[in-house]
Amino acid sequence: CGRGLAYVSGTQGSVDRVNKCVEMFSEAYWNGERGDEISDDGRGELRWDKGDLPASLQHQSFFARCGPRSMFRPDGKDISELEEDEYKTVQAAMMWTEPAEYDESGNLIALVYNTMDVGFQTVFTNLLKWWIAYADID
Predict the structure, then answer these.
(1) How far apart are CA 71 and CA 93, in angstroms?
(2) 28 contacts 116 by C-beta, under 8 angstroms
(3) Contact (Cβ atoms closer than 8 angstroms) between residue 49 and residue 35
């Protein structure tokens, strides 16, 4: 993800906070409209110390920031214990939580993008346009 990218101390959260965040994102995903604001309430806060992440991606809203998948406990159960018919909950866990991988310095290795953020969609679309132009794809 970028050296120095980590949660600000104390904002990674608890099981309750992770559950609330995932439920909020899942609700927005299934029932929201493009451009709907997703509250920052209950979401972690990121810091980027070393500047490896391009400035165009250094926005809190571009990341889900729900926390580690290991802390997501819908109805008090681990996601591996969910029934097959609870596919929306399993999908939410995969879409909005981080796999909680850290390097030896404690920096996050993987984060989940908030692909519903309109600003993120614009930056990512422009990046794809640039690569298509660079590769001269007709």
Answers:
(1) 10
(2) yes
(3) no
